[in-house]
Amino acid sequence: MRRKRSLSAALATAVTAVVAAGLTAISGGTAQAATPLPPRVFAPYFEAWTGESPAAMANEAGVKHLTMAFIQTEKKGSCTPYWNGSTSMPISQATFGDDIKTIQARGGDVIPSFGGYTADTTGTEIADSCTDVNQVAAAYQKVITTYDISRLDMDIEVDALNNTAGIDRRNKAIKKVQDWAAQNGRQLEISYTLPTTPQGLADSGLAVLRNAVSNGTRVDVANIMTFDYYDNLPHDMAKDTETAAQGLHNQLARLYPDKSATQLWAMIGVTEMPGVDDFGPAETFTLANATQVYNWAVSKGINTLSMWALQRDNGSCPGGGARDNCSGIEQNKWDFSRIFAPFTSGSKPPTNDFSVTATPASGSVAAGGTATTTVKTAVTTGEAQKIDLAATAPKGIAATLSPSSVTAGGSSTLTLSAAPEIHSGTYTVSVTGTSGDLNHTATYTLTVTGGGGNECTAAPWAASTVYTGGQQVSHKGHNWKAKWWTTAEEPGTTGQWGVWQDLGAC
Fold it and tell me: Considering the entire predicted model, what is its pTM?
């Protein structure tokens, strides 16, 4: 992607020695058949230098496929690939191996991406760095066989677009790997990620594809970065995506005259930047834009929908500029991912669901006083729905919610009033959110001090006694009422839906 990054901030300092002999010869390696990607795939970029787990984040965001960024050499002139150019992150099962296996076990996969802004401006993109075509091909093969993947991405931009020797080496190396994969019955796709104008590829990007054609290199996906135009013009980012892709379609038609219009659309990918891009607020990709692009992408039958990057898909910096970890606009976490995720072939739109939490989850109040907490809701899958909120509190505690219904993602204030005569002790208040057939509950623990009240008068609970519905006992400073027949079930351990109802402290 075109976002600048500091190598010193992104790379770890530990060094692990990896010798060049670790790269298999292009005629060797394991050629087991990786599972091909679906004909239509949403594969957002994952920033691999952050220390986060790609499997955990993909699961939380509800996406099956990731484009993993980036692979490059440690320094110019090297032929050894590393994640982020860091010698502490070699191409091996020890680096992301378990995460990738987990993603694959869930029915998804990753697309390792070579290049990126930093590599393309420092000469560490592997085909710019390494002058031996066979070693470049061996690096590609090592990634394929180490992680058992079926697509590689080449992110080529800035200086790498003008390195004609590197462009030619890259395509020659890809052709060697494609021949190796074909000879071994292995599925392999190649995508080129390139900067674009709102009218299609600039000539420098088109030259990369022309060179591929001249080398007999198959390009399966031409993926355009539909952001960071830097032309000081007003932009409708969704409309610009459509016109850029149409321009690319026209360009591909001239490069591949034997392909039908449908086949050409199936070669196209688009990558968006959620929210404010690097240029600034004039180039802001909104949630409404995302919905428009999704519908357009489905109607055209394009191959790949992506975004830079998964870590940006949250609203933690509204009103700000472009950052690697937030979108700069008001949004819920994973809003863009939820819009784009059903694009993947065979996926179904996620079921609407939500969460309810109390923040803080505990507090204290003097008898006769009040305490408040914020009840927060969030979309966990699907779209935001109306949630009705209700509070259940023990005797002596009055609970009110304002408002009593919210749209998922909204908040309510829970106010708790302790009666003057309440006994000192700890009380549990429950807040249940209901939307259709779904309900989720959060609990809040309130400690009351300075209270009066009566001593426990009910008989103490006994484990050997049989209790029937309606009978009351005292246990650990609280009165409890049995909801139905029970024995040997300790009050306070059966949960709010269990047999014992907490009548409050005594």
Answer: 0.68
